[in-house]
Automatic annotation (TrEMBL):
GO terms for molecular function: ubiquitin protein ligase activity. Residues 1-30, 719-763 are annotated as: Disordered. Residues 727-741 have a biased composition (Acidic residues). This is HECT-type E3 ubiquitin transferase. It is an enzyme of class 2 (transferase). It comes from Lophiotrema nucula. Residues 860-1239 form the HECT domain. Keywords: Transferase, Ubl conjugation pathway.
């Protein structure tokens, strides 16, 4: 070894070998056997050649017969035997050669040890490091080191002591002789450093070890790091892995120390100095040292402990003070640019990435004395590192699992939550601060002309990545994050005069417009399918080393993902801005108005048009082509086979973690999030356009993408498919509830495995049905989420078809008499008729209806039998056209919405539009308290529940009107109707349809409050002068014992809101919270109860096909001018007025139509209301009025007034002969207030 020639005395002695491995006595060692030259010695079994004529298998076993075959068999056996002997000989030679080499090396090492020991003999008697004598010359020290490196063995205890001894002497030698590290020293030192690191690693894992060994070898590592900083930095990963083991070993009792004793303090000092040596001396490999320091050393648990003990805090703070945080950020940012950086062994676990992120943030905060986050939070390296680490962590690791969905948490998320402590939580939560987020764009060069277009785009992508990571990771702080981005720098940092830059919304809008994703989807909606597909297939192949994607393809996927991040951040910000922007500010962008923050953030209407086109194309594709987008997911799930006969395989499948969701290459995002974001924003823009048109008439329609000829039947078929899927889901849900996964008795493991397999099968069936619904019901998905893509009249027809389909399922059809005949044939027919019958007393319509019909539940969909009685309990006269249903429904609604001396269930706004009384529940509670009921007692809760049942029943009544197609003259406030349309939740993305309170809705509720908040938002001074905080005062007025009483109650808008002042920076959040309180929180119980009743009668998904104005039209009819010709064509005549064979109308009828045409539109509506109880026409014309508009004669008395039966839309018109008299009598009856039973 090492060029040394061995003498014969050092050759291998055979008696040391096992007897079985010794060569034959007549074999010369080291020579090659020359026997059996005709055989190849191949290990492959040769094909047997049969020359005997017998039929045997070509590779069969040999027999023991005679003749030719036996000779061949014997030859084969001899050849095999000779090959075996040759293999044995070859193996013996190999063993001998290895043994001789080993023995030679051992002898050389022993000689070197003897020589080394001879030199060190004098100094070895001194054992303490303080007295170890230095070498007298540099050559002596180098020679001893080279000898040591040649023979040292890390598993040899004596050699370890030799390393320790040499290290102590060399430290003294360098101090005395001032040896420079040149020539052969760096390489020798590096080898010694690696050997010392290996010794330390083994000592750490040993059960018992000499504590002084740690100290001496640690001093040696420190010394070597100083001598060869460049080589140490290059070898930093191994270096820091050793230090991590030492820190982990030494810190086991740090958290228990109340103060630092001398031993621990000295150890901490040496560890800190050793860890920071490669970082302090700048070399060509310093960034490599910082990279290793971050990935390896910063992930050690002691650095992120939340202990308050002295030593852990001192260790962390001293380390934070010693490093250069900018170089650390640059090194990690450079590392994370490479694909698969987070798949390194040091960063594979969620806990490691959490600790790295927490320490990384802490070091930056420490460098700025935990103030001024804007000084570092906008730096591009900080942004890059934090955004990548945040995106690699489960979203619920800090804030916990969301309650909005029932998805189970992944194993990574559970482990991450277990690893989170107070220290890590504080560091990560510190990212959400106004200064840091508000100044995110402050360091960008958005207004500089020096950057190229590519650099500007790259800058926007990085900032968008960070902003989206914050929004994804802190969903509960989403409004605050959006607001701070919207506001920009706070007052302190904004006070520094700087050139005015684009607001965040305009900055990301400009970047979005320039992206290829935006341009492609703007031009063609079909192109969005490929852009939205998850880009994970190639990643899986790369991860398993099956295939390496071309770099060009990888770069293209990464660029697409970055562009999606920019677009999604813009959509998030613009959604927030629309929530706090009223219509005047929205439309002010196209006018020359004074500049303010809101107007600066508004987009020109021409650009809004481009944005809506993009959102239309994207939203349409998200729903209509959902199956195409998710095809990769379906293939993945389809590839998971079910092993019905292998319980272990089923268990593996059950425990398999789902792959990380991805949209357009953006990891961590699911398709429902994008659907919700796009749907919510496009709805808000559509509502703006509905209130005040600024887009072309047919801008929102997407009928070109449909075959409209068969659209309605196709949608009805999809609705039936949806019903079947919901029924199957309900059955699987029942089975899931019956599943019990608790430990069972011994021997029932197979049964448990079978049940787990069944649960897995149910989950897969449910996912398969969901994908099937997306594939077979795309039109239904569009109607439920973006209905304005389809014309309104088409949607009304679809709604009626849905109702007819439901009627057919429940009662066999829309015909009332047929249903009654079927019920009569049932054994319980009499009981059913009794349930569906009621006696309604005038002026008590709602209470009587509630008492008798509330127990029906959904049974109210069936025909009902109504008998009206007067105050004397006498039955009123009237034509029973369908059980006086129409008169009953209109009377109940009129009575329910009529003001009373008690608690009003609904109240009016300034425009006389109805909405649920927001204080009704609180008023009732105050009355109950004064009546002596204890709050939260069973009686108290039952009384409150009774009030909410009335709201629920009123919702059923309105639903019954919609179900039967009966119009009622009730006008609801637009913000209340919006809640009807946005409670669908039956589509693929239920969360996007949730109601969002806006400033415009607040205007419909309370004009004075809106004006006050608008002034607060636009106030140019310091809003703290108003003395507001995050509380609201609710005024509750109620009638008790004939006297009006008023109490005021303060409610916090957010936790500890009383101590949070409203400032210029948080006033938008205050306005948002105020709107949410008034429009959502305060009337929540009443609104929920009403909508629950409404949903019993009408599927919420049906209502989601309409916006608020369209729903009002469904309830009360169209507000457009009455079409008298359409009414005339669809009128039925009775009695004398029946049209004869000649086809001519009666003269009185002709006079009636002439008079009606000459009336004003207001007078026409009054006549229509007089006859039908509503002043509006049906949505699809009078041909759909139910019952049909009818006129019959009422005698020839010229003094008699016209009368009506509104229950059947019947006008009883005397046979007037004079046009003027007819008009006079008709208008007198209309405006005299004559009612039911006038005739």
């Amino acid at each position: 070894m090492g060029g040394t020639t061995l003498s014969n005395n050092h050759r291998l002695k055979f008696p040391d070998l096992p007897h079985a491995l010794a060569p034959p006595p007549d074999t010369q060692l080291g020579s090659t056997a020359t026997m059996f030259q005709t055989f190849s010695g191949s290990g492959r079994r040769p094909r047997q050649v049969n020359l005997s004529g017998r039929k045997t298998h070509a590779f069969g076993s040999t027999g023991s017969g005679a003749g030719t075959q036996a000779a061949l068999d014997r030859a084969q056996q001899e050849r095999v035997q000779r090959q075996r002997e040759r293999d044995t000989l070859k193996a013996a030679n190999t063993i001998q050669r290895v043994w001789r080499g080993h023995s030679s090396r051992q002898d050389v090492s022993n000689l070197l040890r003897q020589e080394w020991d001879a030199v060190e003999a004098a100094s070895r008697t001194q054992t303490r490091s303080e007295t170890a004598p230095p070498y007298q010359a540099e050559d002596e020290a180098l020679t001893q080191l080279q000898r040591l490196l040649r023979f040292v063995r890390t598993r040899n205890t004596d050699d370890v002591n030799r390393i320790r001894h040499y290290g102590l002497r060399q430290i003294e030698t360098v101090g005395m002789l001032s040896i420079t590290t040149t020539g052969p020293w760096p390489l020798a030192y590096l080898r010694l450093q690696r050997i010392a690191s290996t010794v330390l690693e083994r000592a750490v894992h040993a059960v018992t070890s000499d504590q002084s060994l740690y100290s001496d070898l640690l001093r040696l590592l420190h010394f070597l790091a100083i001598q060869i900083p460049a080589e140490t930095a290059k070898n930093a990963h191994h270096f820091y892995r050793t230090l991590v083991l030492l820190v982990s070993k030494a810190s086991t009792n740090w958290e228990e120390e109340s103060n630092d004793d001398g031993g621990n303090a000295e150890l901490v000092r040496i560890l800190l100095e050793t860890a920071t040596v490669p970082l302090k001396q700048v070399t060509g490999h310093t960034l490599n040292a910082y990279e290793a320091f971050g990935c390896v050393f910063m992930t050690t648990p002691i650095l992120s402990t939340s202990s308050t003990a002295v030593l852990p805090q001192k260790f962390r703070d001293t380390l934070a003070d010693a490093i250069n945080y900018k170089l650390l950020a640059n090194a990690l940012a450079s590392l994370f640019k490479h694909e698969g950086a987070l798949h390194r062994d040091d960063l594979k676990s969620v806990s490691s990435r959490l600790r790295l992120l927490g320490c990384f943030i802490y070091f930056h905060r420490f460098a700025h004395n935990f103030h001024s986050p804007e000084a570092y939070s906008a730096h591009k390296d900080f942004v890059a590192v934090v955004s990548l680490l945040l995106n690699s962590l489960p979203v619920n690791v800090i804030e916990g699992a969301s309650t909005e969905n029932g998805n189970s948490q992944s194993l990574d998320a559970i482990k991450g939550q277990e690893a989170v402590n107070d220290f890590l939580k504080d560091q990560i939560l510190s990212l959400v601060n106004q200064e840091g987020i508000g100044n995110l764009l402050s360091s960008s060069s958005q207004s500089a002309d020096s950057l190229s277009e590519e650099d500007r785009i790259e800058e926007a992508r990085q900032l968008a990545n960070y902003a989206l990571a914050l929004l994804r990771f802190f969903p509960r702080r989403g409004d605050e994050i959006r607001m701070w981005l919207y506001i920009g720098p706070s007052g302190a940092s904004a006070g520094k005069e700087s050139p005015r830059k684009l607001p965040a919304i305009r900055y990301f809008w400009e970047a979005s417009k320039r992206s290829s994703v935006f341009g492609t989807i703007l031009r063609d909606s079909r192109a969005a399918v490929d852009l939205l597909r998850p880009k994970t297939a190639s990643n899986d192949l790369v991860q398993h080393s099956f295939w390496q994607a071309p770099q060009q393809e990888t770069d293209r996927i990464a660029a697409t993902a970055d562009e999606w991040r920019v677009i999604l951040v813009f959509l998030e910000l613009y959604t927030f801005i629309l929530k706090v922007t009223d219509d005047e500010e929205f439309f002010s962008s196209s006018k020359n108005t004074p500049s303010n923050q809101t107007r600066d953030n508004a987009l020109p209407l021409a650009e809004v048009k481009d944005l809506t086109t993009f959102l239309k194309n994207l939203g349409f594709t998200l729903y209509f082509n959902a199956a195409d987008i998710n095809d990769s997911e379906e293939q993945e799930s389809g590839s998971i086979g079910l092993s019905f006969f292998n319980p272990k395989a089923a268990e593996v499948q059950t425990q398999k973690q789902p792959s990380e969701p991805s949209v357009g290459g953006v990891a961590g995002l699911n398709l429902d999030y994008v659907k919700g974001l796009v749907t919510g924003l496009i709805r808000m823009l559509y509502e703006r356009d509905s209130r005040r048109k600024f887009l072309p008439a047919d801008h929102w329609l997407m009928t070109s993408r449909f075959d409209m000829t068969g659209f309605i039947p196709a949608v009805v078929q999809e609705e039936e498919s949806r019903h079947k899927i919901e029924e199957e889901d309900a059955e699987d849900m029942d089975d899931e509830e019956e599943f019990d996964d608790t430990p069972q008795l011994i021997g029932t493991g197979r049964s448990q495995q079978q049940r787990r397999l069944e649960r897995l099968q149910r989950q897969q069936r449910k996912a398969s049905r969901r994908r099937y619904l997306q594939a077979v019901a795309p039109r239904l998905e569009i109607l439920q989420n973006m209905p304005f893509f389809i014309p309104f009249t088409t949607r009304v027809q679809i709604f009626r078809e849905f109702v007819n389909l439901d009627m057919t399922k429940r009662r066999g059809g829309a015909d009332v008499e047929s249903w009654r005949w079927r019920v009569m044939a049932r054994p319980d027919g009499a009981q059913q008729f009794e349930k569906h019958s009621a006696r309604i007393k005038r002026e008590h319509e709602f209470e009587d209806a509630y008492t008798q019909f509330y127990p029906l539940g959904q049974g109210l969909k069936e025909p009902i039998q109504i008998t009206f009685v007067d105050q004397f309990d006498q039955q009123e006269a009237g034509i029973d056209g369908g059980g006086v249903t129409k008169e009953f429904l209109t009377s109940v609604t009129n009575r329910a919405f009529m003001p009373s001396n008690h608690i009003d269930m609904f109240i009016e706004n300034d425009q006389h539009l109805l909405y649920p009384n927001p204080t009704a529940v609180e008023e009732h509670k105050e009355i109950l308290k004064r009546d002596g009921f204890r709050e939260n007692s069973p009686e108290f809760r039952a009384d409150i529940a009774e009030l909410l049942k009335r709201y629920e029943f009123l919702g059923r009544i309105i639903g019954k009107c919609l179900y039967e197609g009966i119009l009622v003259d009730v006008n609801f406030a637009p913000f209340f109707l919006r809640k009807w349309a946005l409670t669908g939740g039956q589509g693929a993305a239920p969360n996007e349809s949730g109601y969002r309170a806006t400033l415009n809705d607040l205007r419909d509720l309370d004009e004075a409050l809106y004006q006050g908040l608008h002034q607060l938002k636009t106030y140019t001074g310091n809003v703290e002068d108003f003395g507001l905080n995050f509380t609201v005062t609710d005024t509750i007025t109620f009638d008790y014992e004939g006297k009006k009483k008023t109490i005021a109650r303060d409610t916090e808008l957010k936790p500890d809101g009383a101590n949070i002042p409203v400032t210029n920076q948080n006033r938008l959040v205050y306005i948002s919270y105020m709107a949410r309180h008034r429009l959502q929180r305060q009337p929540f119980a009443q609104t929920t109860a009403f909508l629950r009743g409404l949903s019993m009668m009408i599927q919420p998904s049906w209502l989601s096909m309409f916006n608020q104005s369209e729903l009002q039209t469904l309830v009360a009819g169209t507000s457009s001018s009455l079409d008298i010709d359409d009414l005339r064509r669809n009128t039925l005549y009775g009695g004398t007025y029946v049209i004869g064979d000649d086809g001519l109308e009666h003269p009185t009828i002709q006079l009636f139509w002439k008079v009606l045409k000459d009336l004003s539109d207001g007078e026409r509506r009054a006549v229509l209301k007089f006859i039908t109880s509503t002043p509006r026409a049906p949505l699809l014309g009078f041909g759909t009025l139910n019952p049909r508009f009818s006129i019959r004669d009422a005698g020839s008395d010229q003094e008699r007034l016209p009368s009506t039966s509104t229950c059947v839309n019947l006008l009883k018109l005397p046979m007037y002969k004079d046009e003027g008299l007819l008009k006079e009598k008709l208008l007198y009856s209309v405006f005299s207030g004559a009612g039911f039973d006038l005739s």
